Inverse folding.
């Protein structure tokens, strides 16, 4: 009997170790929000900087561009700031914060049995449509995030908590943009 | 000086500081995941009033962090000047926000949540993140065509307190009240449109709401330190620097630094307009003493690692007063021009026959020279050639690593 019990997890292997954990429900949103607030506070308290995601992604993009076309990077002012000459765009705290975000998300997903290869979508569209829309939406979002000098985390959340006037204007603009279009794309989600 | 934020690079070294950011990022990703932000349908439901998770998590996060931050600054633990407050570019922010709203409802995520989604292997999250990278790439390639708009309507470090002209505590209480009303409204909508049950744990929820509101009221009661309070706290340490004359730099050191293109020298001339018009050092900014306080947020944004601020008056009295204000508000690397403009003119103006000393020595912090006309910086002594002078002085400028914010979450 002991041998069977020992062999079974072995037979299931790494797949089971990764995906086999029992799925747990999400926490109450107010509890999640309060924890988020504490993390955000600690970030400001210890480092002086808030949370962010798009800035780190930006630097990964510029890093790739600098590998492929360094002369081009040296000609565009906006890119030059991050990767001109021998500046390494990855030598920045945001890059590490972004890496940490990926790791934290992965760890929590694994711990709570929510690590799943799946596509979340509305009931009336195909998986492929959802993928295309995710890519298109992501591109629009990425463009807008750089346009607004920050994403939902870096502008709305962080700037909102330290009461930056521009961040509050930005936050309402995001919700306005979403609600304005929501009706016309309702088939995507409902 | 308020002990936080920490000077991470000095404490832990270049890579050690990055480890702290990695851990903060880890906690951020973890919290987003346990809140369900890896699931696009959960996020998009916000825009159909079916599930207000986004609103709840985001605004709870904002108000909790806000109350903690302003309680810490009020108690003198945290220096508000040293934390990153996103500078306001009003219209680019609004246009970018609208674009992002569109991207949100089409794609189902925002950049941070898509990372967590991709990390938990959701394929739509991965596609969104890739799309996000592509959008960022596109922006980098196209921003040159509308750079003027992108840099327009710039208000600097503008806070809601400045905009509403209200004390910090009042704004904090107002924001908490607004959030609580939004939570209540959001739950009504969830029940009406989303068909959700009445929420459980009524007492727990009321207790939580009361706690956060009490925290906000406490922030209001504590208040925020004024510049005078901050100076009082610093005075013992900083008065010693003034007395030991470690922050008063010789005109020769100023000239040498002006000629050094590794260092960015910002000269602040705090005299009245009449004196400034008679004579000032070339590229010195006119910032009368009574306007120094208001200019501090602007100077904070300007302060890069290699920036040195040099304040000057005719002698040193007004300059020292300005120095105290700037130091109290944590502007880094501030120095005083030793002996003021009078000393500068003694050193660099002696072979200019048009400059004459006043026959009767005037009072404190007054110009000791007579000028025939208000020529401002059109004197040789306003822009001496650093190579002509070999002056002896003890160099005092030591660039301090800037503590705290370095550019915000999305810089």
């Amino acid at each position: 009997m002991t041998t069977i019990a020992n062999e079974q997890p072995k037979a299931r292997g790494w797949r089971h170790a990764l995906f086999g954990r029992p799925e747990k429900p999400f926490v109450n949103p107010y509890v999640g929000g309060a924890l988020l607030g504490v993390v955000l506070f600690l970030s400001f308290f210890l480092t002086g900087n808030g949370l962010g995601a798009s800035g780190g992604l930006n630097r990964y993009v510029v890093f790739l561009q600098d590998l492929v076309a360094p002369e081009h990077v040296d000609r565009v002012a906006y890119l030059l700031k991050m990767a001109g000459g021998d500046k390494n765009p990855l030598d920045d705290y945001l890059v590490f914060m972004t890496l940490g975000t990926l790791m934290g998300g992965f760890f929590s997903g694994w711990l709570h049995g929510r690590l799943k290869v799946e596509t979340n979508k509305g009931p009336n569209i195909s998986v492929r449509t959802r993928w295309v829309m995710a890519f298109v939406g992501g591109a629009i979002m990425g463009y807008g995030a750089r346009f607004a000098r920050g994403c939902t985390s870096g502008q709305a959340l962080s700037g909102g908590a330290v009461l930056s006037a521009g961040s509050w204007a930005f936050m309402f603009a995001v919700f306005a943009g979403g609600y304005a279009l929501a009706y016309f794309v309702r088939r995507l989600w409902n | 000086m308020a002990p936080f934020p920490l000077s991470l690079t000095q404490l832990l070294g270049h890579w050690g500081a990055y480890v702290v950011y990695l851990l903060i990022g880890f906690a951020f990703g973890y919290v987003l995941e346990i809140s369900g932000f890896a699931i696009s349908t959960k996020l998009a439901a916000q825009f159909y009033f079916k599930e207000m998770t986004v609103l709840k998590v985001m605004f709870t996060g904002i108000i909790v962090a806000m109350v903690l931050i302003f309680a810490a600054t009020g108690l003198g633990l945290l220096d508000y000047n040293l934390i990153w407050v996103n500078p306001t570019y009003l219209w680019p922010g609004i246009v970018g926000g609208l674009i992002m709203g569109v991207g949100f409802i089409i794609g189902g995520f925002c950049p941070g949540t898509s990372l967590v989604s991709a990390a938990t292997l959701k394929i739509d999250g991965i596609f969104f993140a890739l799309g996000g990278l592509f959008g960022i790439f596109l922006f980098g390639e196209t921003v040159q065509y509308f750079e003027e708009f992108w840099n327009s309507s710039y208000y600097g470090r503008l806070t809601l307190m400045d905009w509403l002209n209200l004390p910090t505590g009042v704004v904090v209480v107002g924001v908490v009240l607004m959030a609580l009303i939004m939570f209540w409204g959001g739950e009504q909508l969830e029940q009406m449109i989303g068909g959700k049950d009445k929420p459980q744990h009524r007492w727990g929820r009321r207790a939580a709401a009361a706690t956060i509101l009490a925290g906000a009221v406490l922030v209001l009661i504590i208040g925020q330190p004024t510049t005078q309070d901050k100076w009082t706290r610093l005075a013992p340490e900083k008065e010693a620097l003034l007395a030991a004359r470690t922050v008063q730099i010789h005109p020769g050191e100023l000239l040498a630094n002006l000629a050094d293109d590794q260092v960015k020298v910002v000269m602040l001339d705090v005299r009245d307009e009449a004196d400034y018009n008679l004579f000032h050092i070339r590229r010195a900014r006119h910032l009368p003493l009574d306007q120094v306080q208001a200019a501090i947020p602007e100077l904070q944004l300007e302060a890069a690692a290699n920036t040195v601020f040099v304040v000057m008056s005719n002698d040193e009295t007004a300059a020292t007063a300005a120095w105290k204000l700037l130091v109290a508000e944590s502007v880094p690397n501030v120095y005083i021009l030793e002996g003021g403009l009078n000393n500068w003119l003694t050193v660099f103006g002696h072979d200019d026959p048009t400059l004459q000393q006043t026959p009767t020595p005037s009072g404190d912090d007054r110009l000791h020279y007579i000028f025939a006309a208000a020529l401002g910086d059109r004197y040789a002594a306003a822009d001496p050639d650093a190579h002509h002078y070999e002056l002896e002085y003890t160099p005092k400028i030591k660039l301090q690593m800037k503590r705290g914010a370095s550019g915000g979450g999305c810089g």
User: Anything to note?
Assistant: The first strand of chain B starts at residue 88 and ends at 89. The radius of gyration of chain B is 27 Å. The first helix of chain B runs from residue 8 to 34.
